[in-house]
Structures are given as C-alpha cells and as structure tokens.
Design brief:
Chain lengths: 265, 584
C-alpha cells in the first residue's frame, strides 16, 4: 500500500479556468483583428490594460506566469519600443524633437512614438492570447476542440501526446551537446561553435525522437486509440451561458475601446 | 480425463513466424504455444531471438502496426489477430512495455487510466468505476490527481499495469517491464504482479523478462527460444530450468543467480540435487551439505583476481587517479551534491550506486569535465577536467554516456573511432593501426564500415566504450552502462571492462545493478541525497543488508543465499560467483 501522498486540497478553479477554452479565444478575436489594422497607441494600450486586469482578477496566477505578465511584458514593451524606434525610417518621423543623439544615432520623439505603438500592439496581441494560454491546459483545449468544433479526436489527442515530447527533446539535446563537446566536436566557445554542435546533435536527436514516437504510438494503439470516430468524455466540455456572456462581453469591450479612440480627436 | 471441461485458452499461437522487411531469417520461427486462463507464461531466449517481436503479435501490433511479415495464426480469446484490429483486440489483450516514459499520454494519473476505456466508448460511469478499481489494485488511487511525470519509475510501471487492467482484458502481456527500473522499483512491480496472479485468479500473463531472480516467483510455465528464434524448450518453469539448465546456459539465457552458482559448484564436484532455483533453495541445499569432503579439492583452485585484498594493491603509486575535495553542485536552488570528498586509487574498479536522484550522474559528469565545477574540487591525474582542453581531457579520462547514440557523430564505425586521433593530427598510419587494434578488442571488425546507428544495442555500447578508450585514457567512467540492456550483453560489457581494469585502467561505473557489477567492482560507493554515505570494499558493502536497504538498494541474491549461519564456513559470506569453488 502506498502512503497517501502529501497533497494540498486543490482549490476551486479560477473564473477564467472554468470557462470553455474556445470562449477565451472567441472573446478576443475581434480585438486581435483591431490590433492588426490599428496604427495608433491608445487602443492597444487600453486593450493591453484590460487583458492584464482580467488575468489578475480572474486568472489566479502564480510564480512564472505572474512574472511574465508583470515584469516580462513591460520589459518587452521597452525593448521593442527603443529597438524599433532605431529601426524605423527617420524620414517618416522627421521634424520631431531629437530625444537622444549619439554619433550617427538620433532618436526622435516621432520615431519613439512609432516604436511604442508597435510594441504596444505586439504586447496587447500576446497578452490577449495569454487570457486563454495561461488558464487552459492542452487536454482541455483538445476536448473543447473535439466537442464544440467537431475536430477528429485523433488529431487533437495526438497533439496532446506530442506536447510531452518538448521537454524530453530539450533534455535529450542538452545531453547530446555535452557528449559532443567532450568528444571535441566543434570545440571552443562562442556562437559559431555552439551552432555547429547544435547541427551535429540533430541526427542523434532525430533518431531518438523517432524511436520514442514509435514507442508512444504502439502504446497508444494498444490502448484502443483511434478505435472509433468518437470517444467517451467523462466530463464533456459544455458551452454554458457564462461562455456566451464572456464572449459577447469581450466583443463589446473591444467595440467600446474602438469607439472611444475613434471619437477622440 | 473426466474432470470439468477445461476453459478455453486465453491465447493460442500456431506456427507463428515473423520476418522484418529486409531480413532473410524468420525470428521467431514456427512457435507453438497455448496460454491457459490463470497461467503465467515466461518467454526466454538470447538477444535477437525475437521474443519481444513475438510479444507484440499477441495484440496484433505485429502485423497491423509494425511492418513485418506474419505467418501462422495467433488466436486470443477465440479471435484471430489477423482478422481483428489492434483496437478491437485491446478488449482481450493489454500490453505493458519496457519504457515507462513512452506509455504516458495525459496529465493526471486518473485520466491516464481512463484513456483506454474512453477510446473504447465505455460509458462514463463505468470508465470511472473501472479506473477506481484498477488504481486501487495497484495502490495509486490516493495519487489519482497527480501528474504521472512525478511518479517514480516503479510507480509509472504500476500505472501502466493499472491502464492495462482498466481495459478489462483477461490477458496481460509485459515486455521487459522492469529493465528500466532501479531495484526497489522492480521489486514493487513484481510484488504487484504476484498479487494480480495469486492462485484462483483467471488472469493470464505473458512475460518477457531476463531477470529471473525476481520473476520466477510468479511464473508457471516457460517457453525458451533459441538464437534463431525456434522453440528450444517449453513446459512448467521449474522442471524446464532444472532439466535443461546447462543447455540454457550454453544458449546464452540468463538463469536465476542461485542456479548459476549451483551449476558452478556441481562442476566442482559438490552434489546439489535437485538444482536450486531460488535463494531459499540454494541456502537450504548448502545447509544440508557435508561440504568439507567435497570442497577440499576446489578450495585450492586458482586465486580469483581483483579482490580487494590482493597484495599488489599496496604497491600502487600514491597519486590517486581521481580526487574530489569538498565538491558541491547546485542546480535550480537545489543541492545535487553536498561537500563530496572522494579518492579513487589508480587501477581501482569503483561502482557508484544509490537511489534515483541521488546525484550519481552529476558526480561522474563532474569527474569527466562534462559539467563545469568550481576550481580545485576535482582532479584527475593532475588535471582539472573542467578547465583542460578537449584533447588533454580525452587523453586522461574517457566518459561513456548512458545512451551511446548521444555521442556518435561519424558515418562509419571506423571514422567514429578515428575522430579524436585525427583531431590530434596523428599520422594516418598510426590512426589506422590504433583503429584496427580497437576493432579487434571490441569485436567489431565485421562492422567497420557500418553506420554506428545501425549496430545492435550491444555493439553500440561497445563502440561508445571504444571511442572513450582509443586515445589511451587511463581512467574510464561509464554512466549506467547496463541500463535497458539484457543480462548477457551486460555481462559481455563487464568482461571487457574487467579485462581493461586488469591491464591497469581505472574504471568508475554508475549502476543500479549491484548483482552484476558487484561481481567485478573492487569498491562500492553509496550515494544518497548528494552525499557519500558509504565507501568500502565490495564484499563489505554487499554483506551489509541494512545499509543497502536504507538506500533503496537490495542485497544481490547470491549474497543473500550465502549469508545465513547454516551455510558451510567455506562458502559463508562469499559475494562473487568467481569466488565459489568450480572456477576452471
């Protein structure tokens, strides 16, 4: 007999986790489209703030997810703003005040604004995606895709199984690169040697991944995977009223932001 | 003859032959077998005889999923595997494979067990009832909400067995279920299988396994295939093992350790009849023996080489091969190694053992310069492996990774061996002379132009040892060289290591397999939670049962059999087969 595991009682899932995974995508689609076409900074900023607030209020985030959202996203905005400000054609933003000047580099206020807009649009796109991304597991998404969108479960579940391959392949590649280094393949440090070692590791990594995939496929087939067009769902994901309300609210919020921005001079 | 009608057999194989594309020989070839309800059948045979392939034919993976030619018939629960799909057969046969990692699909223990029945469209309420029954049977019900990744190796295999039970099939096929596990994990799996096949159960089991010391207790019948995959022997397991022990040994099949020991002593003229198969039987047989007269002659047989107390040990130079001083390694805020200090004298054969996660691999990787450790903590024959150049390192210490494929880079066996020599720009004549010598040592001459990835498992392992040796490194370090390999191949490798050690190479091996490595190692270090908890001569470590069990290790069967007070004094406390009378 195994001793009962030390395990905290799982808290009730957060508001966002209880929603259907597809609702979390459907609600943000109009906002994504708006972000692709907009060329100014206010709408992305508002959408970004809304997404962050929603995640903080309804996502019950911990650890790395929280760090990503509260530190990673602002740093990303800063880096992309300055980076793309240097990148943009200064002609397009000429006639604005020079903020920083160092040798041939000149950073104008106009270029900075363009950079900031780009950064905010990217950050808002990403953060809206995180509403679903940080609060949904792969299997939940797979179940919703098969139940609501009628995607054949074979594809959805094969993707779930493939998800397990990623950490395995990463650990394997580390070992292979260590092995190649002590065998003196592409010796030395620096990026070129590192890339050469990476390339030498591709064959062993592929060989072992293919073998692993074969084994997984045999094990899944032995457990009747793909026997029927459908499979039993113990807890079938449902589309509830809350999902409709959340989706419509997402669309309404996007519309409100756009109206606000377009009406302001 | 007038008894109740026998139940229909769980599986019947008639003239089964299987051939892989491109192969000329059929392995297995013309196999006949019947598995009765409640019977536990063990399939034995040397490497390459097709026993795993045969196991895959029970649920139709051969020929439906594995591209191989299948002749003859296999019937399970009255259905021919040729006519039914693998999915349909999953109601009649469930499989458990060797690699626990390759059988996981979902994110929780409970979902994992439900996966099979859900695919079979079993109603939800019944899926849950079956899952609960299966998880309770394997003792994992309390852990149903956990991620299967965090279970131990033994726990993952118990989960795989629960998944098989939940499918509700009366026949369970297990293909080497414990060869990736540590001793505690393997014991866990066989305890469970023992419960599932207790007398009165109608569950049939087909088992491919080479560690008979653990498996024998649950097995009823045996089918032995020869090297060409043809049936060699079959029948009740104890009768076959007793009657054919010498034939099986000649075939390259691994016998239970007590049987191997008894065969040895028989050859030395010690009558052991009937042949003991278990630790208890060997202990009892020896206790009854009037050994004094019989053992007189063999006790003067040649002195076994490489015992801890051999006289030239004192003559070794004072400079150790490897010295570790106050080595601490942290990763992700966790201490993997804490303040390790260790000296390995030149010419030693050291086994590093301990439970999973004890830091064994980290320790040997630090020795070989794979990991960069703080200056001054590790020295190998006067160099600092973390700071030496790759070629200086390879001339001093050779490292063999757990998976040999990880270190292969060339397209032929020859080039693989020549790689390091050519990097040093040695004259081509010298390179080919050294490569030739190494091919001979490794018995790989016939494969010199093959691609390293196309070698067999045992050949790959030998080649990886060769790449580590060819530059003449006087220190050789191997991480789990017997992991996932069958016993005969593992023993071949250890013979090679023993020969190298006898010619002066210092050998350090990380291992779970004390039963095998204990036969060769001079010293054993036990590592647990990043500390060296014991380091002593092999015999002393092996005879300390409490110490071993406190660190998830187990006393090897031979040591257990010879430990009791009733064992004749000449044999009591011996730990190595080579020390038994009968050496020729």
């Amino acid at each position: 007999m195994t001793a009962p595991a030390l395990r905290l009682v799982a808290p009730a899932p957060s508001f966002l986790r209880r929603l259907n995974p597809l609702a979390k995508v459907a609600a943000v689609v109009p906002a994504w489209i708006a972000l692709l076409v907009t060329r100014e900074a206010t709408a992305p900023l508002l959408l970004l703030l809304l997404a962050v607030l929603l995640l903080l209020a309804g996502g019950r985030l911990h650890g790395r997810a929280l760090v990503l959202l509260l530190i990673g996203v602002p740093i990303g905005i800063l880096v992309v703003s300055v980076g793309s400000a240097l990148w943009v054609d200064p002609g397009g933003a000429s006639g604005t005040a020079v903020v920083v000047s160092a040798g041939p580099l000149r950073l104008t206020a106009g270029a900075l604004l363009i950079g900031l807009t780009t950064a905010l649009r990217l950050a808002a796109l990403l953060t809206l995606g995180l509403i679903g991304g940080l609060t949904t597991s792969g299997p939940e998404l797979a179940r919703a895709l098969t139940a609501q969108l009628r995607i054949p479960y074979r594809f959805a579940y094969a993707a779930v199984a493939a998800y397990r391959f990623v950490p395995r392949a990463a650990a394997e590649l580390t070992l292979i690169r260590q092995a190649l280094r002590i065998r003196g393949v592409a010796p030395g440090r620096g990026p070129i040697a590192a890339v050469r070692r990476l390339l030498s590791g591709v064959v062993p990594l592929l060989a072992s991944s293919i073998r692993h995939a074969d084994r997984v496929a045999l094990a899944m087939e032995s457990r009747a995977f793909g026997a029927h067009p459908r499979r039993t769902e113990r807890v079938p994901p449902r589309w509830r009223t809350a999902d409709t309300v959340f989706t419509v609210a997402g669309w309404a919020a996007t519309a409100a932001v756009l109206v606000l921005v377009l009406r302001s001079p | 003859m007038d008894g109740p009608p026998a139940l229909a057999p769980a599986a019947v194989a008639r003239s089964v032959r299987i051939r892989y594309p491109g192969a000329t020989a059929w392995t297995p070839d013309e196999v006949e077998v019947e598995v009765a309800p409640g019977e536990v059948l063990l399939i034995l045979g040397p490497s390459g005889c097709g026993k795993s392939t045969f196991a895959l034919s029970f649920n139709g993976l051969v020929p439906h999923a594995v591209p191989a030619e299948f002749a003859g018939t296999m019937t399970v629960g009255g259905v021919s595997t040729r006519e039914a799909s693998v999915a349909e057969l999953s109601e009649r046969v469930a499989m458990v494979f060797q690699d626990p990692e390759a059988q996981l699909v979902t994110r929780t223990v409970l979902d994992e067990v439900c996966f099979g029945p859900e695919n079979r469209l079993v109603p939800a309420a019944e899926v849950e009832a079956r899952a609960e029954a299966a998880l309770r049977a394997v003792g994992l019900w309390d852990r149903r909400d956990e991620n299967p990744d965090i279970l131990s190796g033994g726990g993952k295999q118990r989960l795989a067995i629960a998944c098989a039970l939940a499918l509700g099939s009366p026949l369970l096929v297990l293909d080497e279920p414990t060869s990736n596990l540590d001793p505690a994990g393997a014991e866990e799996v066989y305890r469970l299988l023992g419960e599932l096949t207790a007398p009165g159960s109608t569950r049939s089991v087909v088992l491919v396994e080479h560690d008979l010391d653990l498996a024998l207790a649950i097995v009823d019948t045996v089918l032995v295939l020869d090297g060409a995959g043809r049936p060699f022997a079959s029948g009740p397991v104890r009768e076959v093992l007793r009657a054919r022990a010498e034939d099986l040994e000649a075939l390259g099949v691994w016998l239970p350790t007590p049987t191997t020991a008894a065969l040895r002593m028989r050859r030395a003229g010690i009558p052991l009849d009937p042949l003991p198969l278990t630790v208890e039987e060997l202990a009892a047989a020896l206790a009854d023996l009037d050994v004094d007269s019989a053992a007189e002659e063999p006790s003067v047989t040649e002195e076994p080489s490489g015992t801890g107390s051999d006289p030239d040990a004192e003559a070794l130079p004072a400079l150790p091969a490897v010295s570790v001083t106050g080595l601490t390694v942290k990763r992700g805020g966790r201490r993997i190694l804490s303040e390790i200090s260790l000296r390995v004298p030149r010419g030693d054969f050291l086994a590093v053992v301990g439970p999973n996660g004890a830091g064994k691999s980290t320790l040997v990787q630090s020795l070989a310069g794979v990991l960069r450790v703080p200056r001054g903590t590790v020295g190998v024959l006067g160099i600092d492996p973390a700071r030496a150049s790759a070629s200086a390192l390879r001339k001093t210490i050779g490292f063999v990774f757990q998976n040999p494929e990880h270190q292969f880079v060339a397209h032929t066996v020859e080039d693989e061996l020549a790689l390091g020599l050519r990097q040093r720009r040695l004259p081509e004549a010298e390179v080919s002379a050294r490569v030739d010598g190494m091919l001979t040592l490794l018995d790989l001459h016939a494969h010199r132009t093959s691609h390293p990835f196309l070698l067999s498992g045992g050949q790959k392992r030998r080649l990886s040892v060769g790449t580590a040796l060819i530059e003449g490194a006087p220190v050789l370090v191997l991480d789990e060289p017997t992991f996932g390999q069958d016993r005969a191949r593992a023993a071949d490798l250890l013979e090679l290591l023993a020969a190298l050690n006898a010619s002066g190479t210092t050998v350090i091996v990380v291992t779970h397999d004390l039963g095998l490595i204990g036969q060769y190692a001079r010293h054993v270090a036990i590592l647990d939670e990043g500390r060296v908890v014991a380091l002593d001569e092999t015999a002393r470590i092996l005879s300390d049962r409490a110490l071993l069990e406190a660190h998830a290790l187990r006393q090897p069967p031979l040591v257990r059999a010879l430990a009791g007070p009733s064992i004749p004094a000449e044999l009591r406390g011996l730990t190595r087969l080579a020390d038994l009378p009968g050496l020729r």
